[in-house]
Amino acid sequence: MVLLIVNDIVIEAKTMASDIPWEDAGIDSVFTAFSARQAREIIQENPIDILLCDIEMPEENGLSLIRWIQENHYDIDCILLTCHADFAYAQEGITLGCQDYITLPARYEDIAASVKKVCLRHQQHQEELRLQNYGKNWLASQAETLSGHEDADSHRSPAEISESCVQYILAHIGESELGVNDVASSVFLNPIYLNRIFKKEKGTSISQWIIKERMELASTLLLTTDRPAVEIAYQVGYNNYPYFSTVFKKYFGMTPSAYVKKNKPC
Question: Mean pLDDT, to the nearest integer, of 51-64?
Fold first, then answer.
């Protein structure tokens, strides 16, 4: 799940992004925006799932941003942040379909708990939509396919299932949309159940494993080829280079350019 924090007070947004253990709340990556305009640009370029948005901002407030999200039919669940417990704000937020309303200052654990609940609801909604979109014919065909695999699947060990996931990830590592649902479909298992098996076998979630494989491949390409980092980012599944650079720095403790300078033979 991808979270976007919108707050015109830069230090608050950055601190919230860095200090809250978002992975525990079901968040894989976090973007920050310091105005509604910047938030719209990020939403247009990245698949955002959850919006954590301050209401009181200059030029354009959070409620206006949420109206824009609805008008453009983005499937984003919204949580409002405000320093003023104003019922009128809460009422309008509810009218706009906001999932929660948090009055600041708030404990980080309370913010994380709210995001976690919204993540779970968002995942359930996505699963329902996925089934609806495929429709009855798809379900019937899948039932037939699954029946053909039933005997073989019943004998697969957790280790074999996890290894199948790893091989699928490696084969599709350059696809920007690669995620848990894709991997789960490849082994005919429920995403939540599969993630539990995978984490027990590999010690990490499927999302984190995808990041690990992408980062390791990126580091190899940076050190063994002369391709620019931007091109490598696309090759390992990142359409947004700044985000790739952020993930790379978090994984290796330095930017791609610094990593090359330190490790690439002269």
Answer: 88
* 221-246 mean pLDDT: 92
What tokens appear for 227 in the block? 């391709």
* Percent of the chain residues past pLDDT 90, beyond the cut: 58
What number of other Cβ atoms are within 10 A of residue 187's Cβ? 18
Please name every residue paired with 53 in a beta bridge, in sequence order, or none if there are none. 6, 80
Q: What is the DSSP string of 58-115?
A: SSS-HHHHHHHHHHTT---EEEEEESS--HHHHHHHHHTT-SEEEESS--HHHHHHHH
Provide the whole-model pTM.
Answer: 0.49
Residue (of 66, 81, 90, 70) closest to 114 by Cα position: 81
Task: Tell me the mean pLDDT in the region 234-244.
Answer: 93
Is residue 170 a part of any domain in this protein?
yes
Residue 90 has pLDDT above 70, yes or no: no
109-118, 122-131, 179-188, 246-255: segment of lowest average pLDDT: 122-131
What average pLDDT does the chain have?
A: 85
Task: Identify whether residues 176 and 90 lie together within a single domain.
Answer: no
The range of the structural domain enclosing residue 95 comes to 2-119
The torsion angles phi and psi of 155, rounded to 5 degrees, stand at -100, 0
CA-based nearest residue to 53, from 114, 120, 122, 117:
114
Instruction: Please report the beta strands in the chain, taking only residues with DSSP state E, as ranges in sequence order.
Output: 2-6, 29-33, 50-54, 77-82, 100-103
Beta-carbon contacts of 256 under 8 Å, excluding residues fewer than 6 positions away, are: 218, 222, 229, 232, 244, 245, 248
**Do 210 and 257 fall into the same domain?**
yes
